[in-house]
Amino acid sequence: MMLKGGRAYYGHAVGILLFAGLEASSEFYATHMGGTRIEMDLAKLRDEVVAIAVQLVRDRPGLAALVLECRTPPSFAADIEAAIGLPVFDCIAFVEFIHRSVLPRRYYGFV
After folding, report:
1. Is 2 in contact with 8 (CB distance < 8 Å)?
2. Alpha-carbon distance values, 27 to 4, 64, 94, 99 (Å)
3. DSSP state of 24
4. φ and ψ at 87, to 5 degrees?
5. How many CA atoms lie within 13 A of 105 on its CB side?
6. Buried b (16+ CB within 10 A) or exposed e, 15-50
């Protein structure tokens, strides 16, 4: 894969990679990014993460899916998917998806 100006080139396939952060989440920053709090308000964090995903889809209407690459947002994947109406993968599910597409499972007998 080679990146050029935000585009990923995989042989002949070209896709756009977008990276978005959680800078707009006060709860995430208070507990994860140098903040001093050790307890978080999960409902507030969920609402903020979902709102960020909704805004990302509004800003980029051509998005086909989201991949949540860090450890916290996957807890809210179902909420995000319900709000945006697109597939949402956490980092582990995305790797499994790619693995299965490259190396499909072999079934024996009738399934």
Report:
1. yes
2. 33, 27, 26, 34
3. T
4. -65, 140
5. 6
6. eeeeeeebeebebbebbbeeeeeeeeeeeebbebbb
88 close to 77: Cβ distance less than 8 angstroms? yes
Structural domains in the chain plus CATH codes: 2-102 (3.30.420)
For residue 35, give the amino acid letter: G
Residue 75 DSSP code:
G
Rounded-to-integer distance, Cα 50 and Cα 22, Å: 10
For the chain, 111 residues long, give each residue's pLDDT as a single digit of tens. 334 444 444 444 445 666 777 777 878 877 777 777 788 888 998 999 899 899 888 988 788 888 887 777 778 889 999 999 998 888 888 788 888 888 888 888 876
